[in-house]
Structure formats: C-alpha cells, structure tokens
Structure prediction request, 179 residues.
Amino acid sequence: MKSFGLLAILLFTAIPFVAQSAIVPVYAESFRQGSTRVIEQRFEVKLTPQDSTYRERIKDSRGADRYVFSITPQGPEGDSEITSWQVKLADLHHVIYDNILRVSQESSHPKDALWWLDPSKFAQIPVAAKRIIKVENFYVVLQVKAFHFTPPDSPYLDSMTVAVELTNTDPRTAEGTQK
Prediction:
C-alpha cells in the first residue's frame, strides 16, 4: 500500500512537469502583407563563434532573387562572446524593410521576438519553440534544434543549430492533418 501511495505522488507531481515542458508552436503574422510566394526549401544552419553568420538569397516563386535571409550573432556591447542569434528577412525590392519577420515596425508587440533565438531563461519566446511567421503569402518556420553554452553555466554560446523552412502552405494545417 505504501508503494502505491508513493507511485501516485510521483505520478501526480510528474504530470504538471510534463505539461509545462511541452512547448507549443508560436505563430505570428508579419507587418508585411502581400501576394508574394517563394520557392519552398528546408535547410539547417549550424552556427559557432568561428562561423557565426549565415546569409542566403531567397527566390520568389518565379525564380527571381527577392529576399535576403540572414542569421547574425548578438552579445554584450564591446564583447566578442555570443549570447543569442537574430534572424532577419530583408526585402530586396523595398530596402527600407530590413527585417520583415517583425510583427510590427515598432518593437512593442509581445510576439515581435520570434526572430530572436535567445536561449536565456529570460527569453520572451522559449528557445525550443517552433516559430511560424507568415510573411506576404508564405511562411518562415524556425526551430532551434540544439545549442550549447561554454562553460555550461555561462550565458555564452559556442554553438546553435537552427532548422529553417520556407513554405507556401500553412504548416499549422499540415501538422493538424498528420495527427
């Protein structure tokens, strides 16, 4: 009887922990609305202090260069250490828009941090969350697959792996049909 009571206590304390650790996808729509679609692609980016920046041109559905996708390191001012990475999607046709992954052109919207890959415990968006951002008539999906601090108890990153998907189909409906 004692072991049954102990098992019940363990089970009831573990259930909230499992529920809290399940991270749901976070969805937002860019301030940039329109009809542009892209050539769909998936890729993985492995970032390190030695290879800390990623940049790639993204083509629209007609095959023309339309956007520049980039990931750049962030850290304390005047320091070479990396504490996070920021993702940007710049519109080559409208250079005034340096990051159309933003929800608004002002930084006051709560979901306006989907492009900031911040593994700190104070991050607005959990680092492991799948981030889905609708831009024009396509979606940018970002998910941090792995990251590592050096030393382990410091805020400084020595690596991060990010899965990136550009799709013209809403990934939330695709996930719903797979279940």
